UniProtKB/TrEMBL annotation:
GO terms for biological process: L-lyxose metabolic process; rhamnose catabolic process. It holds the Pfam family RhaA. Gene3D superfamilies: Divalent-metal-dependent TIM barrel enzymes. The keyword Thylakoid does not apply. One of its GO terms (molecular function) is manganese ion binding. NCBIfam families: RhaI_grampos. Keywords: Cytoplasm, Isomerase, Manganese, Metal-binding, Rhamnose metabolism. Coiled coil: none annotated. This is L-rhamnose isomerase. PANTHER family: L-RHAMNOSE ISOMERASE.
Length: 384
């Protein structure tokens, strides 16, 4: 692919930031409060807009309900628009209430299931009101002990809840169904892997697609293989990008394993699927500044994408057809070894942006301003 085509595609790639990453977060041991953290969903949008202003490719922000509950969602959406961004995926929260102890949509208690489904339906409404086209579902449902509940009955309850929600979606809305190997449940999760998620999507219909969170697999899982298979089936809805060393670490994407990210992006580029996939971040910035961490993360995704776009597809296909293992592998490694920072600087220059968004942030005075202005009130986040 020539340089201009690479830049054209990079301009079209949109990377969605998660509202929760702008708030305080931590581990089960400690949530360190950071000065300047948003006190309202509106202030989260201000931060997301800043990330977009500096990177030019992060025009949407995902919401998490009820963390981002407001009285008037249309007003929130129009505020976002005024700041130059839009509302992205709507994420329901069916894991933080006491009555979800044994699950939400899979709970053995029909009243709890009803409550959870009502919340999913509420999120369909919020998506409509904010102009969002995507629902992003993650369920903490599962069990801790063999025999605790019927695995099969839980699948039936899940299918029932999803189909009621699916039926309420307008034709232009997509349901993204996320899976997770373990945590918070340790014996079995009701949606533990891409296959289970895919089966539910198949049953639901074409508006249901699988969401791959890069931190939700067993160590050593070949994630790009999953990506390739789902793309082939037309059911890869999108990503929750982040890095992990051990489990669901939620560190900055591209920090722990930039090569893994590149391999994922290579599958997307080679399937010409850049515009059909939602590139979303799902991260927690526990010890680093949140806004700059999100800027860095957006840049990391861009760098991996640029390298994937630079793969010499002809040389690769030729080597593959000839069974030339090392040349085929070499075609990928050459692209991965390319320093794409000058190309990205050129692209930013053409987009009227500072060549280095991290430096631009440091020089902007934004951090000092939010620290000075956001005094009083309650910082958003969990447990801070
Ligand atoms: C949880 O592990 C998942 O990654 C979800 O996407 C979750 O909704 C998100 O991390 C916000 O809590
Ligand atoms: Zn996730
Ligand atoms: Zn996760």
């Amino acid at each position: 692919m020539n340089r201009d085509e690479v830049k054209r595609l990079l301009r079209t790639q949109h990377i969605e930031t998660p509202s929760w990453a702008y708030g305080n977060s931590g581990t089960r041991f400690k949530v360190f409060a950071e000065p300047g953290v948003p006190r309202t969903p509106y202030e989260k949008i201000d931060d997301a807009a800043m990330v977009h202003r500096l990177t030019g490719v992060a025009p949407t922000v995902a919401l998490h309900i009820p963390w981002d509950r407001v009285d008037d969602y249309a007003d929130l959406a129009s505020y976002a628009k005024d700041q130059g961004v839009a509302i992205g995926a709507i994420n329901p929260n069916v894991f933080q209430d006491d009555d979800y102890k044994l699950g939400s949509v899979c709970s053995p208690d029909p009243k709890v299931r009803r409550k959870a489904v009502e919340h999913l339906l509420e999120c369909v409404g919020i998506a409509r009101e904010t102009g969002s086209k995507q629902l992003s579902f993650w369920f903490a449902d599962g069990t801790n002990y063999a025999g605790q509940d019927s695995i099969r009955a839980r699948q039936d309850r899940l299918a029932e809840a999803l189909s009621e929600t699916y039926a309420a979606m307008p034709a232009n809305m997509t349901m993204l169904l996320e899976y997770k190997l373990f945590e918070p449940a340790f014996y079995q999760m009701d949606l533990p892997d891409w296959g289970t998620s895919y089966m539910h999507c198949l049953q639901l219909g074409p508006q249901a697609k699988v969401l791959v969170d890069t931190g939700h697999h067993a160590p050593g899982t070949n994630i790009e293989m999953i990506v390739a298979v789902l793309l082939r089936a037309g059911r890869l809805g999108g990503f929750h990008f982040n890095s992990r060393y051990y489990a669901d670490d939620d560190l900055m994407v591209g920090a722990a394993d930039p090569f893994g990210l590149f391999r994922i992006m290579h599958e997307i580029v080679s399937a010409s699927a850049m515009d059909g996939v939602a590139f979303m971040l799902d991260q927690c910035h526990n010890i680093e500044g949140k806004v700059p961490a999100l800027i860095r993360s957006v840049m990391n995704v861009q760098e991996a994408t640029a390298k994937a776009l630079l793969v010499d597809a002809d040389a690769l296909t030729r080597a593959q057809a000839e069974g030339d293992v090392l040349s085929a592998h070499g075609a990928l490694m050459d692209a991965f070894a390319t320093d794409v920072r000058p190309l990205l600087a050129e692209l930013r220059d053409e987009m009227g942006l500072h060549l280095d968004p991290m430096q631009a942030y440091r020089e902007s005075g934004y951090q000092q301003r939010i620290v000075a202005e956001r005094v009083g009130g309650t910082a958003m986040g969990w447990g801070a």
